[in-house]
Amino acid sequence: MNINSVTRRTGLFLTAAIFLTGCTVGPRYQPDRMKPPAKFTEDDHAATPEEIEETDRELKQWWHLFKDPELDRLVDKAIAGNYDLQAAGQHILAERAIRDVQASQWYPQLDADAGGGNVRYSINIENWPLRPGNPANHPDANYLTYGMAGSWQLDVFGRIRRSVEAQKYAVEATIEERRALMVMILSEVASDYMMLRDQQLRLEIANNNIHVAQDAYDLTNRLYLEGVGNTMQIAQAKAELDSQTAAREPLKTHISQITHALDVLMGQMPGTSEIELKVAKPLPKVPEFPAALPSIVLANRPDIRTAERQYAEATARIGMAVAQLYPNFSIPISFNPNASVMSQMTEAATMSWQFLMMASLPLMHGGKMTSQVRATQAAAEASRLNYRQTVLKGFREVEDAMAAWHDDEEHTELLAKAAEDSALASERARKLYAAGLVGFLEVLTTERTTLNAQNAEAMARLERLQDAINLYTALGAGWQGIALTNTTLPVSLEKQNILARAFQQ
After folding, report:
1. CA 31 to CA 310: how far, in whole Å?
2. How far is 24 from 162, CA to CA, in rounded Å?
3. Residues in contact with 179: Cβ distance below 8 Å, sequence separation at least 6, in sequence order
4. What does the longest C-alpha to C-alpha distance in the chain come to?
5. C-alpha dihedral over 272, 275, 280, 282, to 10 degrees?
6. DSSP 341-397
7. Phi/psi at 448 (nearest 5 deg)?
8. 501 versus 165: which is more confidently predicted?
9. Mean pLDDT of the chain, nearest integer
10. CA–CA dist 352, 333 (Å, integer)
11. Cα–Cα nearest to 218, from 232, 230, 234
């Protein structure tokens, strides 16, 4: 059989193998469709297409709905400087690089080598071609070699295609995880900012109550000097003043802690914005309830999108496991001339090469490969069920947030009216006490009631703002208007290896 015949048969074998490359084993991914209801149970409004479009536009940057420039500034700084967000961008780069590593298996793998030196062989071996002890033996030899060695994996049954597909879905899941982190950071910045303004409001209430307690203490002393009061009333007034003063200190501590948390979210040292943020400002107003909330907006939630991509990845990994049950085809290639002098390196007699078509078929592995298929099937089913559970969780969070938004509105209005009535009662009690018509106990009671009512109103206002933040977060809003960070490696590969400029290694 001559070399031409071998080459022709090898070529036919290779052509047939490449033709079979279109065969990809394993299940093809089919999204697990869960039909959502047309609307949420907590929202009976029938939305028009215009309202849906308006809501979609507003939710992309929902923090602007609070109309607070300081909040907008904090959000912008957090998006640009948060280190967790930057690290998530690097995770995307890493997953993309792993995908490229998987895809590299499609191409021939080729390496070049060269070498030379002196080689000495043992002559004290019976079967050596030159008998031991023969003075004609020359155990030393100059050795020069160069050549190339490579291999080409033929993806006949789609193992490589499935691995690239799985990694592609892994990249997309990582992107969604970064978007979920973005939603969480936006929520934390807005929540911390609202908490900061709430604590500043309570500090203002505490300062006002200290002034009221001081006035009551001064009044009690004056009445005592006029022969109207007694020392017990003075002691009660002093205790109330001390109590109100002490209640102010934890508020100062909490304000400092919140500013530190905001600084870390923005990627800067705690205390950097302390002076700027400690300037008291009123709580923002609660935005209007979104004009339309069709349930399809849950498709924006990054956690649902992540779960769906993870299910797709797990499905592709079934194909990888199934492909292991089928024959594996490869083409090993080598070209390796050897000689003792440089002038002989190009002669035909020095040439050594091989070009083969290799096939391997798994026969007996104790059930390992079929077990791997069952394991990937179970993992894929678990991913599908996790996706469904994530969808249910998303619906529940949106329904809960809408219920809280509607229920807390009336609750806040009633508490505001109670705080107003309590303040009026406290003022009248002080006047009646000054006129000697009521005792000091009535003054203390009305002042404490006023303090509790004012703090309850402040807490309710904070809860109303948090209701809005929770709804926007539950809807998965905020990441749509922000592009992924285009981060790059700090070291240029092209500058590290000259060959990288010519070859994609």
Report:
1. 11
2. 8
3. 302, 305, 479
4. 137
5. -30
6. SGGGTTSGGG--EEE--EEE-----TTHHHHHHHHHHHHHHHHHHHHHHHHHHHHHH
7. -65, -35
8. 165
9. 80
10. 11
11. 234
CA-wise closest residue to 436 among 214, 223, 235, 216: 223
112: tokens are 């070049």
Say if residue 44 is exposed, middle or buried (CB neighbours under 10 Å; 0-12, 13-18, 19+).
Answer: exposed
Q: Nearest to residue 137, comparing CAs of 124, 151, 152, 146?
A: 124
Distance CA 401, CA 477 (A): 14
Residue for token digits 């990441």?
Answer: 479
End-to-end C-alpha distance for the chain, whole angstroms: 39
Which residues contact residue 124 at a Cβ distance below 8 angstroms, ignoring those fewer than 6 apart?
A: 132
Is a pLDDT exceeding 80 seen at residue 403? yes
- As given in the structure block, the two tokens for residue 208 are 């006002």
Q: 103-117, 257-271, 282-296: lowest mean pLDDT where?
A: 282-296
pLDDT digits (tens, 9 = 90+) for 133-181: 555 556 677 778 888 888 888 888 889 899 999 999 999 999 999 999 9
Helix axes 159-225, 83-103, angle to 10 degrees: 170
AA letter at 438: V
Q: How confident is the model at residue 128 (pLDDT cuts 50, 70, 90)?
A: low
Distance CA 199, CA 195 (A): 6
Residue at 228: amino acid letter:
V
Q: Which helix (H) or strand (E) holds 305?
A: helix 302-323
> Do 25 and 158 touch, CB atoms closer than 8 A?
yes
Could you count the other beta carbons within 10 Å of the beta carbon of residue 74? 23
426 contacts 450 by C-beta, under 8 angstroms: yes
φ, ψ for residue 113, nearest 5 deg: -145, 155
The count of other CB atoms within 10 Å of the CB of residue 35 is 6
pTM of the model: 0.79
Structural domains of the chain ordered from first start: 3-106+155-278+290-326+361-501 (1.20.1600.10), 109-154+327-360 (2.20.200.10)
